Task: structure prediction
Amino acid sequence: MKPIDLSNVQEAGNSTRLPAGGYVCKIISAEDVADRAYILVQYDIEEGDFAHYYEERFRANPTWGWGGKLYKSYKQTALPMFKRFCSCVTKSNPGYLFDGNTNADEKTLTGKLIGMVLGEEEYTGNDGTIRTRLYCVTEKSVEDIRAGKFKVPEKKTLATTSSGFTDLGGGNDSDLPFS
Result:
């Protein structure tokens, strides 16, 4: 290895991983991706032990990009979930209305609070290893999060075979009508 001068390099601290749970979050930015019919919402944890979690990670290593992202589709099939998002933002910010119709400027979401329940799921990384990431299970009002009125689901695991199909076990394929 060639010599490296580490005298001006700040040592990385022990990074604490954000656990699954309910969080009061602040919307950092919102961008309409009209050709794909979704709003990209970037958020950060606003309260508690993990306040400013994503900002701190971004400052430590900007090449990773911003971690707290939520994609809210407003395609016809996703409208019930989009309405839940709109309702939760409105309930969490007294005097503010975001209804996706008469009050639909996504830029006004910046700075607003919303409650989020984050869960864990496994995925296969580019190197083939199984990793874990957080995802937004559902949105809630900040009052529900503060009151503990939410449930964190069990971790989603990769319970499929390499073919991508779940092995239900114990079957005999010879009795299938199309074999």
Notes: The beta strands are 21-33, 38-45, 69-73, 113-124, 130-140.
